[in-house]
Amino acid sequence: MKKFQLLFAAIIAVALMASCGNAGKDKTASNKKAKTITGAGATFPQPFYNKIFKSYTKEKGLLVTYGGIGSGGGIRSLKDKIVDFGASDAFLNDKKLADMPAEVLHVPTCLGAVVAAYNLPGKPELKFTPELMEGVFMGKIKKWNDAKIAAVNPGVKLPDMEITVVYRSDGSGTTFIFSDYMSKVSADWKEKIGAGKALKWPVGIGAKGNPGVAGTISQTEGAIGYIGSEYAFAMGIPVASIQNKAGNFILPSVESVSASAKGEMPADTRVSLTNTDAADGYPISSFTWLILYKEQNYNDRSADQAAQTIKLIEWVVSPEAQKETTKVHYAPLPDAAVAKAKAVLGKVTYNGKALK
Amino acid sequence: MNSEKIFKYLLVSSGVLMVLIALGIVATLFVGSIPSFKEFGFGFLFSTEWDPTEGRESYGALPFIIGTLLTSILALIITFPFAFSISLFLGEYFKDGALPSFLRSVVDLLAGIPSVVYGLWGFYALKPLVAELGLNAQGFGIFTSSVILAIMIIPYASSLGAEVISMVPGSLKEAAYSLGATRFEVVRNVIVPNAGSGIFAGYILALGRAIGETMAVTMLIGNSNNMPTGIFDLGNTMASLIANQFGEAEGLKYTSLIEIGLILFVITGIVNYIGKLIMKKLSA
Asked: What is the DSSP string of B173-241?
């Protein structure tokens, strides 16, 4: 009797699991209509994506959902083939591209800035040279009234206050852009910390997400941290102007971020803009990308699903969507980048045939 | 089959399903952490390095194990006098009436507040206070998280205690009173020895809750992946680390985080086991 009971229980358990497994697999219908388009990834451009995808859904009647799960999560979701497109602030390097199950394309969607935001009594306007950035963020300069800060900011009243560095505790494309810049301007940073989505920080406090860092800075006197510009502007936190390669101190703005993208762009659009050569360019700027498979017939996706995905992404780089960028403190793509983005989209195929 | 049998099978199968799910979780964590274990071996448990930079990736769990144990044990120590008083108050001194029932609902309410709300309160109210007191520069850190955890776990530690204390047989207490014992002596010599294992069970439950707490801790502990040097230093816990870093993790970091999850699972298991042992001893 005992044995029989156990057997019965086991059969039920197995049956339950099997039925769950079956439910997950959608029935193949390669000609079915697309109902929703799903994307996931970077949180840095999320305010922009939320805005435009909402209006796309409203206008075209096709539901677009975007999950801000982080750039790494976006790449992983695309790798697992559970989304129509991913989103990342850091382009996939050659090694990561080779790790993907099929050829992946990058489409730039807008430009953003990572700003150095701080909380000091009286909200003084501060200037930072790359040397100061290195000193402060590596913990070599410990006080706000340090002579090195005063030398770059003559006439500014600096308090006798400890510097509290605030960084992202979660892995993040924002951290990647910031550390990519720091690695270019500081040899010491490059050697000891390096560039990546998560770092080994010598000093400071970690806070989760751009909103977390912004909140911690605004709650902590003497704090300085790096965040996506939208989050600093939205909360009214002062941001530093940073000396670029040409030697000019530049405040992050739509114009200075756009200016940073003046240089040449490769055909696959994978280019880093940090420490730009442009004389009027803000040095911690970056493109942010949508990523998708070149061959769109995967995981039983229908031809319509593929076509709708491409249509959506084409719309994202169209003037209609691009003009929304500045409303949330991002910069629109320069014309050259739009042309490159369209060329990339032209390569997309379904069953080997060009989609357009 | 009659309804009696069907009911029995239903019970058995749901019980077995629970066991299967628990085993499934362990198996998934175990399989997921194999690559990390292959790379670091048992050194993972003792390494203080958490360096995710590409090219020199190296991961170790020690700062997070210490952070988890420090915050939760400190929280338990802070919560003890409050939880014990509440248990006595509700279980022995004032069992009925408006005030005790009000106190009981407030304590139950504490258990129902989402942890992110605790985190927010800690961030806007407790953190500035800790900084004001000069305990550390910004108010973040292990101590601040422990205080929040202590408040969060009071209901877990006190409810069960109140329940068992009220169940101590009246005849025992009356016997003590008739021998001339004061109320305090009754508490000390009759109630605590009688209800000890139940009270202790409440604290184990509370400790388990503190070990696993994520959101409130993340918002207050400072998320520094370096080894903490004291209770006012910044730190990080295993649960908070996983919540923070899982989204962007890939490769070696991904499997290291899963291994941290496995260690957390094992530590929770060990705490429960030790708790059971002590309870057995207390009730024997």
From this structure: HHHHHHTT--HHHHIIIIIHHHHHHHHHHHHHHHHHHHHH--HHHHHHS----SPP-STTS----HHHH
User: B222 and A206 in contact by Cβ < 8 A?
Assistant: yes
CB contact burial B139-149 (16+ within 10 A = b; e otherwise): bbbbbbbbbbb
Task: Report chain A residues touching chain B, CB-CB < 8 A.
Answer: 5-6, 8-10, 12-13, 16, 69-73, 75-76, 162, 164, 169-172, 193-201, 204-208, 212, 215, 219-220, 223
Minimal C-alpha gap between B253 and chain A (Å): 10
Say yes or no to pLDDT of A15 above 60.
no
A122 & A181 share domain: yes
- Residue B52 contacts A where some CB pair is shorter than 8 Å: yes
Considering the domain architecture, whether residues A88 and A149 belong to the same structural domain is answered as no
- Asked, for residue B58, whether it belongs to a domain, the answer is no
Q: Can you tell me the mean pLDDT for B143-168?
A: 92
> What local confidence, expressed as pLDDT, does residue A27 receive?
42
> pLDDT over 70 for what percent of chain B?
99
Q: If you average pLDDT over residues A25-32, what whole number do you get?
A: 50
Whether residues A305 and A232 fall in one domain: no
Count of structural domains, chain B: 2
Q: What is the CATH number of the domain that holds B111?
A: 1.10.3720.10
pLDDT tens-digit series, residues B165-194: 998 999 999 999 999 999 999 999 999 988
- Single pTM value for the model: 0.84
Based on its alpha-carbon atoms, the radius of gyration of chain A, rounded to whole angstroms, reads 23
- Range of the structural domain that residue B178 is part of: 63-283
Nearest to B61 by CA among B248, B271, B284, B242: B242
The tally of domains found in chain A comes to 2
Do A69 and A137 lie in a common domain? no
Residues in B touching A170 (Cβ below 8 Å)? 244-245, 247-248
Whether the per-residue pLDDT at B1 is higher than 70: the answer is no
Min Cα distance B196 → chain A (Å) is 37
